[in-house]
């Protein structure tokens, strides 16, 4: 299977970005030997800072296998942004598609053509209070089972210390961008099975377990036993808010009833 060459525009972006990354950040890179030398593959990466795509891309660019990131198809329709995304080979995701597999058709085509497609399975910056990976979405697993391409888990740490989630940039003292790529995740137990929610969730959990294990190695501390689930947490907060509103309404109703009773009692006394 072939591997895609690094194009002019991708090289230009690297020429612009790399000097700044080298000047402002130290590097601790491990596991480059786990990046396939040819053929299509998937990387599944944790996300804890708006800076970490640069940290991860710098790491993988130096392996000679450049990552192609996923972006909403709507961005490709914008005149300037869309042209730039196409020139550096980014991958559209057709989220408006009613067919989940069809939404990732461009990613599947890229992998089958010998490219690397990078997924952030969490779908957004981690909301975990201690910045461990959250529960993942099933897109990476779905594409992996469609293509049977290797899934390389990648953990990173350090970009979040320079730019914390939803925080301010702190360049000094210089932070170390740590990136660790692991061996392929074994998803063979799911090959040939129907892509049911249960099977996709199982494959996704295997991917997230591998990323979390690598991150624990980078951080030098054990990972939590239970993975943070942002959607479950959001539902719990909504339920708590509804209960609070109900309790407040009940308290207000009790107070109104008490006031009515007092008024009625005063009226009876006045009549007497």
Outline the secondary-structure elements.
Elements: H1 8-24, E1 25-30, E2 41-45, H2 52-61, E3 67-72, H3 73-77, H4 79-87, E4 91-93, H5 100-103, H6 105-112, E5 116-119, H7 139-147, E6 151-157, H8 159-162, E7 175-181, H9 197-219, H10 230-271
Parallel strand pairs: 1-7, 2-5, 2-6, 3-4, 3-5
Antiparallel strand pairs: 6-7
Helix pairs in contact: 1-2, 7-9
Q: What strand order characterises the main sheet?
A: 1-7-6-2-5-3-4
CATH class of the largest domain: Alpha Beta
Name given to the CATH homologous superfamily of the largest domain: Glycerol-3-phosphate (1)-acyltransferase
Largest sheet: 7 strands, mixed
Figure out the total of helices. 10
Please tell me the overall pLDDT: 87
Which runs of at least 5 residues are low in confidence (pLDDT < 50)?
A: none
β content, as a range? 5-15%
Kindly state the percentage of residues in helix. 40-55%
Series of secondary-structure elements, N-terminal to C-terminal: HEEHEHHEHHEHEHEHH
State the end-to-end CA separation. 100 Å
Give the number of DSSP strands: 7
State the CATH architecture of the largest domain: 3-Layer(aba) Sandwich
Helix/strand structural class: alpha/beta
Q: How would the global form be characterised?
A: globular
What number of domains? 2
- The radius of gyration is 25 Å
Examine the coordinates and then state which fold CATH places here, giving the name of the CATH topology of the largest domain: Glycerol-3-phosphate (1)-acyltransferase
Could you characterize what this model shows?
The protein is α/β, with parallel strands linked by helices. It folds into 2 domains: 8-219, Glycerol-3-phosphate (1)-acyltransferase; 229-272. The protein is built from 10 helices and 7 strands. The protein has helices spanning 8-24, 52-61, 73-77, 79-87, 100-103, 105-112, 139-147, 159-162, 197-219, 230-271; strands spanning 25-30, 41-45, 67-72, 91-93, 116-119, 151-157, 175-181. A 7-stranded mixed sheet has the order 1-7-6-2-5-3-4, sandwiched between helices. The longest helix is centred in the last third of the chain and has 42 residues, at 230-271. The protein is globular.
């Amino acid at each position: 299977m072939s591997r895609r060459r690094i194009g002019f525009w991708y090289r230009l972006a690297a020429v612009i970005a790399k000097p700044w990354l080298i000047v402002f950040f130290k590097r601790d890179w491990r596991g480059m030997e786990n990046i396939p030398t040819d053929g299509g593959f998937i990387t599944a990466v944790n996300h804890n800072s708006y800076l970490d795509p640069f940290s991860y891309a710098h790491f993988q660019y130096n392996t000679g296998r450049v990552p192609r990131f996923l972006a909403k198809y709507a961005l490709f329709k914008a005149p300037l942004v869309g042209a730039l995304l196409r020139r550096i080979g980014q991958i559209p995701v057709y989220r408006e598609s009613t067919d989940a597999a069809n939404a990732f058709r461009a990613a599947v085509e890229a992998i089958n053509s010998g490219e690397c497609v990078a997924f952030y399975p969490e779908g957004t910056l981690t909301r975990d209070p201690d910045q461990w990976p959250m529960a993942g979405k099933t897109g990476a697993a779905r594409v992996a089972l469609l293509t049977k391409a290797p899934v390389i888990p990648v953990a990173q740490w350090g970009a979040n210390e320079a730019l914390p989630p939803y925080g301010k940039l702190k360049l000094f003292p210089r932070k170390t961008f740590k990136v660790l790529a692991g061996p392929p995740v074994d998803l063979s137990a799911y090959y040939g099975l129907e892509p049911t929610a249960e099977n996709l969730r199982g494959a996704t959990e295997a991917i997230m377990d591998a990323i979390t294990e690598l991150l624990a190695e980078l951080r030098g501390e054990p990972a939590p036993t239970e993975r943070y689930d942002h959607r479950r947490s959001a539902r719990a907060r909504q339920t708590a808010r509804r209960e609070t509103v109900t309790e407040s309404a009940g308290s207000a109703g009790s107070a109104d009833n008490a006031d009515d009773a007092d008024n009625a009692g005063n009226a009876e006394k006045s009549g007497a």
